[in-house]
Amino acid sequence: MSYLGKYISVIVPAAGMGKRMNSKINKQFIKIKDIPILARTLMEFNKCDYIDEIIVVTRYDEIDFCQKEIIDKYKLDKVKKVIQGGKERQDSVYNGLKEVNKKSDIVLIHDGARPFVKRNIIEENIKFALEYGACVTGVPVKDTIKKVDLNGEIISTPNRKELWAIQTPQTFRYDLILKAYEKAKLDNFLGTDDSMLVERMGYKVKIVMGDYSNIKITTPEDLIIAEILVDK
Protein backbone atom coordinates (compact mmCIF):
# COMPACT_ATOMS: atom_id res chain seq x y z
CA MET A 1 0.00 0.00 0.00
CA SER A 2 1.67 3.19 -1.17
CA TYR A 3 1.19 6.59 0.43
CA LEU A 4 -1.13 8.63 -1.83
CA GLY A 5 0.21 6.70 -4.80
CA LYS A 6 3.78 7.86 -4.18
CA TYR A 7 6.84 5.63 -4.41
CA ILE A 8 8.74 5.72 -1.10
CA SER A 9 12.37 4.64 -0.76
CA VAL A 10 14.61 4.23 2.27
CA ILE A 11 18.41 4.40 2.36
CA VAL A 12 20.06 2.86 5.41
CA PRO A 13 23.79 3.65 5.68
CA ALA A 14 25.47 0.89 7.68
CA ALA A 15 29.08 1.03 6.54
CA GLY A 16 30.71 2.56 9.62
CA MET A 17 33.01 0.54 11.83
CA GLY A 18 32.01 2.35 15.01
CA LYS A 19 35.44 2.74 16.65
CA ARG A 20 33.90 4.14 19.83
CA MET A 21 32.15 0.80 20.36
CA ASN A 22 35.53 -0.94 20.82
CA SER A 23 34.20 -3.89 18.87
CA LYS A 24 35.94 -6.12 16.33
CA ILE A 25 32.80 -6.28 14.19
CA ASN A 26 30.66 -3.60 12.58
CA LYS A 27 28.50 -2.23 15.39
CA GLN A 28 25.38 -2.71 13.25
CA PHE A 29 25.88 -6.49 13.57
CA ILE A 30 26.12 -6.50 17.37
CA LYS A 31 23.11 -8.27 18.83
CA ILE A 32 20.55 -6.89 21.26
CA LYS A 33 18.58 -9.75 22.78
CA ASP A 34 19.80 -12.12 20.03
CA ILE A 35 18.81 -9.84 17.12
CA PRO A 36 21.43 -7.69 15.33
CA ILE A 37 21.02 -3.91 15.60
CA LEU A 38 20.74 -3.53 11.83
CA ALA A 39 18.05 -6.21 11.59
CA ARG A 40 15.98 -4.41 14.24
CA THR A 41 16.35 -1.14 12.35
CA LEU A 42 15.32 -2.64 9.03
CA MET A 43 12.35 -4.46 10.56
CA GLU A 44 10.68 -1.18 11.45
CA PHE A 45 10.80 0.06 7.86
CA ASN A 46 9.98 -3.35 6.39
CA LYS A 47 6.75 -3.43 8.44
CA CYS A 48 5.63 0.01 7.27
CA ASP A 49 2.99 -0.35 4.55
CA TYR A 50 4.02 2.90 2.87
CA ILE A 51 7.62 1.83 2.18
CA ASP A 52 8.24 0.42 -1.31
CA GLU A 53 11.97 -0.29 -1.22
CA ILE A 54 14.97 -0.25 1.12
CA ILE A 55 18.59 0.14 0.03
CA VAL A 56 21.22 -0.95 2.56
CA VAL A 57 24.69 0.51 2.20
CA THR A 58 27.49 -1.39 3.91
CA ARG A 59 31.19 -2.18 3.63
CA TYR A 60 32.23 -4.13 0.55
CA ASP A 61 33.54 -7.08 2.56
CA GLU A 62 30.28 -7.28 4.53
CA ILE A 63 27.79 -7.29 1.66
CA ASP A 64 27.42 -11.09 1.53
CA PHE A 65 27.23 -11.39 5.31
CA CYS A 66 24.59 -8.65 5.45
CA GLN A 67 22.53 -10.31 2.73
CA LYS A 68 22.61 -13.79 4.29
CA GLU A 69 22.62 -13.04 8.03
CA ILE A 70 20.37 -9.99 8.07
CA ILE A 71 18.22 -9.64 4.94
CA ASP A 72 17.58 -13.31 4.15
CA LYS A 73 17.55 -14.57 7.73
CA TYR A 74 14.94 -12.08 8.91
CA LYS A 75 12.95 -12.14 5.65
CA LEU A 76 13.29 -8.41 4.98
CA ASP A 77 11.63 -8.53 1.59
CA LYS A 78 11.54 -4.77 1.02
CA VAL A 79 15.35 -4.62 0.94
CA LYS A 80 15.94 -4.55 -2.81
CA LYS A 81 19.70 -3.96 -2.80
CA VAL A 82 22.73 -4.23 -0.51
CA ILE A 83 25.45 -2.04 -1.95
CA GLN A 84 28.95 -0.85 -1.19
CA GLY A 85 29.46 2.25 0.92
CA GLY A 86 32.10 4.95 0.67
CA LYS A 87 34.79 6.51 2.80
CA GLU A 88 32.42 8.89 4.58
CA ARG A 89 28.74 8.50 5.49
CA GLN A 90 27.96 11.16 2.89
CA ASP A 91 29.63 9.03 0.21
CA SER A 92 27.59 6.01 1.30
CA VAL A 93 24.29 7.88 1.14
CA TYR A 94 25.19 9.26 -2.29
CA ASN A 95 25.86 5.70 -3.48
CA GLY A 96 22.42 4.77 -2.17
CA LEU A 97 20.73 7.71 -3.90
CA LYS A 98 22.13 6.57 -7.23
CA GLU A 99 20.66 3.08 -6.68
CA VAL A 100 17.08 3.90 -5.65
CA ASN A 101 14.28 3.26 -8.11
CA LYS A 102 14.10 6.18 -10.56
CA LYS A 103 10.36 6.49 -10.03
CA SER A 104 10.96 7.26 -6.37
CA ASP A 105 9.15 10.34 -5.05
CA ILE A 106 10.36 10.42 -1.44
CA VAL A 107 13.56 9.14 0.16
CA LEU A 108 14.02 8.54 3.87
CA ILE A 109 17.63 8.33 5.09
CA HIS A 110 18.04 6.52 8.40
CA ASP A 111 21.05 5.40 10.45
CA GLY A 112 21.54 1.64 10.56
CA ALA A 113 22.47 1.92 14.24
CA ARG A 114 19.20 3.62 15.24
CA PRO A 115 16.89 0.62 15.82
CA PHE A 116 14.17 2.21 17.96
CA VAL A 117 12.51 4.47 15.39
CA LYS A 118 8.74 4.30 15.74
CA ARG A 119 6.14 3.80 13.05
CA ASN A 120 4.44 7.15 13.65
CA ILE A 121 7.76 8.98 13.15
CA ILE A 122 8.33 7.21 9.84
CA GLU A 123 4.83 8.08 8.65
CA GLU A 124 5.10 11.69 9.82
CA ASN A 125 8.37 12.06 7.91
CA ILE A 126 6.70 10.87 4.71
CA LYS A 127 3.76 13.23 5.24
CA PHE A 128 6.01 16.25 5.90
CA ALA A 129 8.34 15.51 2.99
CA LEU A 130 5.41 15.34 0.59
CA GLU A 131 4.04 18.63 1.90
CA TYR A 132 7.26 20.62 2.40
CA GLY A 133 9.91 18.78 0.37
CA ALA A 134 12.37 18.32 3.25
CA CYS A 135 12.17 17.37 6.92
CA VAL A 136 14.29 15.93 9.71
CA THR A 137 13.46 14.14 12.92
CA GLY A 138 14.55 15.81 16.15
CA VAL A 139 13.84 16.42 19.83
CA PRO A 140 14.23 19.57 21.94
CA VAL A 141 17.47 19.51 23.94
CA LYS A 142 17.06 18.96 27.68
CA ASP A 143 20.38 20.41 28.83
CA THR A 144 21.72 23.93 28.66
CA ILE A 145 24.16 24.15 25.74
CA LYS A 146 27.34 26.22 25.85
CA LYS A 147 29.38 27.40 22.87
CA VAL A 148 33.04 26.92 23.80
CA ASP A 149 36.26 28.06 22.09
CA LEU A 150 39.43 26.03 21.52
CA ASN A 151 40.82 27.19 24.88
CA GLY A 152 37.89 25.63 26.72
CA GLU A 153 36.32 28.98 27.55
CA ILE A 154 32.61 29.67 27.16
CA ILE A 155 31.77 32.06 24.33
CA SER A 156 27.99 32.12 24.67
CA THR A 157 24.88 30.33 25.90
CA PRO A 158 22.32 29.83 23.10
CA ASN A 159 18.61 29.99 23.91
CA ARG A 160 17.69 26.40 24.72
CA LYS A 161 14.20 26.87 23.27
CA GLU A 162 15.78 27.20 19.82
CA LEU A 163 17.96 24.08 20.08
CA TRP A 164 17.03 20.60 18.90
CA ALA A 165 19.01 17.36 18.86
CA ILE A 166 18.68 15.95 15.35
CA GLN A 167 17.99 12.27 14.71
CA THR A 168 16.99 10.24 11.67
CA PRO A 169 15.05 9.61 9.51
CA GLN A 170 15.76 12.68 7.45
CA THR A 171 13.36 12.73 4.53
CA PHE A 172 13.26 14.56 1.21
CA ARG A 173 11.82 14.67 -2.25
CA TYR A 174 14.10 12.46 -4.28
CA ASP A 175 14.94 15.08 -6.87
CA LEU A 176 15.80 17.63 -4.17
CA ILE A 177 18.13 15.44 -2.09
CA LEU A 178 19.85 14.06 -5.19
CA LYS A 179 20.48 17.61 -6.42
CA ALA A 180 21.83 18.60 -2.98
CA TYR A 181 24.23 15.64 -2.92
CA GLU A 182 25.43 16.29 -6.44
CA LYS A 183 26.13 19.94 -5.61
CA ALA A 184 27.99 18.95 -2.44
CA LYS A 185 30.13 16.55 -4.46
CA LEU A 186 30.82 19.23 -7.07
CA ASP A 187 31.76 21.75 -4.37
CA ASN A 188 33.81 19.17 -2.42
CA PHE A 189 31.63 19.97 0.61
CA LEU A 190 31.30 17.54 3.52
CA GLY A 191 28.29 18.09 5.76
CA THR A 192 27.48 16.66 9.17
CA ASP A 193 24.03 15.45 8.16
CA ASP A 194 21.80 15.17 5.10
CA SER A 195 19.68 18.25 5.73
CA MET A 196 22.78 20.44 5.85
CA LEU A 197 23.29 19.76 2.14
CA VAL A 198 19.73 20.85 1.41
CA GLU A 199 19.96 23.90 3.69
CA ARG A 200 23.04 25.22 1.89
CA MET A 201 21.02 25.38 -1.32
CA GLY A 202 18.58 27.76 0.39
CA TYR A 203 15.74 25.31 1.03
CA LYS A 204 13.74 25.35 4.26
CA VAL A 205 13.71 22.10 6.25
CA LYS A 206 10.88 21.23 8.66
CA ILE A 207 11.28 19.46 12.01
CA VAL A 208 9.34 16.29 12.78
CA MET A 209 8.98 15.61 16.49
CA GLY A 210 11.08 12.56 17.30
CA ASP A 211 11.39 10.45 20.41
CA TYR A 212 14.09 10.41 23.08
CA SER A 213 14.22 6.61 22.77
CA ASN A 214 15.27 6.91 19.11
CA ILE A 215 18.93 6.65 20.11
CA LYS A 216 21.90 5.98 17.88
CA ILE A 217 23.95 3.13 19.29
CA THR A 218 27.51 4.44 19.32
CA THR A 219 29.20 3.40 22.59
CA PRO A 220 29.08 0.36 24.90
CA GLU A 221 26.94 2.41 27.29
CA ASP A 222 24.31 2.75 24.56
CA LEU A 223 24.03 -1.03 24.41
CA ILE A 224 22.97 -1.09 28.06
CA ILE A 225 20.23 1.46 27.33
CA ALA A 226 19.22 -0.52 24.24
CA GLU A 227 18.73 -3.70 26.29
CA ILE A 228 16.33 -1.76 28.54
CA LEU A 229 14.44 -0.25 25.62
CA VAL A 230 13.90 -3.68 24.02
CA ASP A 231 12.19 -4.88 27.21
CA LYS A 232 9.85 -1.86 27.43
TrEMBL record:
<dbReference type="InterPro" id="IPR050088">
    <property type="entry name" value="IspD/TarI_cytidylyltransf_bact"/>
</dbReference>
<dbReference type="GO" id="GO:0019288">
    <property type="term" value="P:isopentenyl diphosphate biosynthetic process, methylerythritol 4-phosphate pathway"/>
</dbReference>
<protein>
    <recommendedName>
        <fullName>2-C-methyl-D-erythritol 4-phosphate cytidylyltransferase</fullName>
        <ecNumber>2.7.7.60</ecNumber>
    </recommendedName>
</protein>
<feature type="site" description="Positions MEP for the nucleophilic attack">
    <location>
        <position position="160"/>
    </location>
</feature>
<keyword id="KW-0414">Isoprene biosynthesis</keyword>
<feature type="site" description="Transition state stabilizer">
    <location>
        <position position="27"/>
    </location>
</feature>
<comment type="similarity">
    <text>Belongs to the IspD/TarI cytidylyltransferase family. IspD subfamily.</text>
</comment>
<dbReference type="InterPro" id="IPR018294">
    <property type="entry name" value="ISPD_synthase_CS"/>
</dbReference>
<comment type="function">
    <text>Catalyzes the formation of 4-diphosphocytidyl-2-C-methyl-D-erythritol from CTP and 2-C-methyl-D-erythritol 4-phosphate (MEP).</text>
</comment>
<keyword id="KW-0548">Nucleotidyltransferase</keyword>
<dbReference type="InterPro" id="IPR001228">
    <property type="entry name" value="IspD"/>
</dbReference>
<dbReference type="Pfam" id="PF01128">
    <property type="entry name" value="IspD"/>
</dbReference>
<comment type="pathway">
    <text>Isoprenoid biosynthesis; isopentenyl diphosphate biosynthesis via DXP pathway; isopentenyl diphosphate from 1-deoxy-D-xylulose 5-phosphate: step 2/6.</text>
</comment>
<feature type="site" description="Positions MEP for the nucleophilic attack">
    <location>
        <position position="216"/>
    </location>
</feature>
<dbReference type="InterPro" id="IPR034683">
    <property type="entry name" value="IspD/TarI"/>
</dbReference>
<dbReference type="GO" id="GO:0050518">
    <property type="term" value="F:2-C-methyl-D-erythritol 4-phosphate cytidylyltransferase activity"/>
</dbReference>
<dbReference type="InterPro" id="IPR029044">
    <property type="entry name" value="Nucleotide-diphossugar_trans"/>
</dbReference>
<keyword id="KW-0808">Transferase</keyword>
<feature type="site" description="Transition state stabilizer">
    <location>
        <position position="20"/>
    </location>
</feature>
